[in-house]
Amino acid sequence: MTHSVSRALVVAFAAGLCLAPTGTALAQPEPAAPQTDLKEPEKLKPRSAEDTQEQEPQFRVRHADVGRYDSARNLFYLSGNIEFQDGETKLYCDEAIYNNDEDTAACGGNIRIVEKETTITGELINADFEAETIRIEGNAKIVSTKKPKPPEDAAEGPRPDKPRVTTVTCDRIDYTYTEGERRALATGHLKVTQEKRTVRAPQADYDREKGVMVLGHGVTIEFADEEMQVTCDKITYQEEDDTAVCTGKVRMFDEETVLTGEKIIVDFEPELATITGSVKIVTTRRSKAEKDKAQDDPEGEPGKRVTTITCDKIDYTYTEGKRRALATGNVKAVQKDRTLYAQKADYDRETGLVVLGDKVTVEAEDGKGRCTKATVHVDEDWVIMEPFDGWTYRKKKSRSESPAAGEPTTTEAAAPPGE
């Protein structure tokens, strides 16, 4: 930008505010005292070789009620209903210092950045218009409104067209608004809120173009309608699909159930979580006998019955009143007095029933049996095997029949006739 062109822009704007280029206001009241502790704006990115070449002049200020121009430093001190604009990005505030040479601004007082589908607010802003980067500090907030993804198949029927609102609050936001590269890095006491959930993390990287938000360094999801949480090291959230991929020390839990694995994919719309990699679900509930005992002795210590299922994969529906876990691949269900092996298990959390299928083996202290289907209850001590294919007993030897060293301590006997 040449000096003459820059000077012409300054004079033109000054005339619009009724200012003399020397900084003396003509028939204008003195600017109100600053309401915020504004410092002069800073460059957020160093100028590149291309930036230093002569370019078309830009002047970002579109309006201010009052302005004072320092011609020696080429600074504008603005107050009252200020509006900056750079392309489709508009910035509003109550007071600002604009550096015409550096193309930067420091803003305070009711600040607001407005773009299509997105509004950003905070206490202080440092804007580098040349670098198309804005830093927002102090009670920073992003509110993004997106329409849900339309159905890929018309047979699925219409989906709710209510816009999905995502609110991000944090200590600081570094926002790049370059067309096609819009991105926000949010840090410090980060909280992401949607209609049915809240996510907390130290930081988030939000790619507006792709609709992807990556949260890291220890993340927690809290569900509004459930006493359930998900914790992990990292979450990648897809805005359009409303899904989240959770990795690193993954744990999904509530008061009585804990699910762990290497990865959880949460599909928020159908309220379905898919857990893979070293999967385990542990349910801790009071047995029926202990519940009955507690009624007789309310002050007694309530007993617990633990059921542990390990497998290759679990599809867990967490909708209130419809909670269900479908476990597949190398399923092993362990209770205090038995272990069951199968290829799949359907655990209905509402009824407490676990139904195992496909060549089930049941092992207990006194032997083992096989069946096509087995049903156990997480609260009670029974198991139903159907069709029952027989039972192999383990007969303990008496002390007089103790085996020699290295020999097995039990023997197996065929099931009695008719069993």
Shape: rod-shaped
Low-confidence stretches: 1-12, 18-29, 296-301, 408-419
Strand content: over 45%
Instruction: Write down the overall mean pLDDT.
Output: 82
Largest sheet: 22 strands, antiparallel
Multimer state: single chain
Order of helices and strands: HHEEEEEEEEEEEEEEEHEEEEEEE
Distance between the termini: 96 Å
Q: How much helix, percentage-wise, in residues?
A: under 10%
What is the count of β-strands?
A: 22
- Structural class by secondary-structure content: mainly beta
What Rg, in angstroms, do the CA atoms define? Answer: 33 Å
Number of helices: 3
Main attributes of the structure:
419 residues; mainly beta; 22 strands; disordered N terminus; disordered C terminus
Could you outline the blueprint of secondary structure elements for this entry?
Layout: H1 3-16, H2 49-52, E1 61-63, E2 66-70, E3 75-86, E4 89-99, E5 104-115, E6 118-128, E7 133-146, E8 164-176, E9 183-194, E10 197-207, E11 212-223, E12 229-238, E13 243-253, E14 257-267, E15 272-285, H3 288-296, E16 305-317, E17 324-335, E18 338-348, E19 353-364, E20 367-377, E21 383-396, E22 410-413
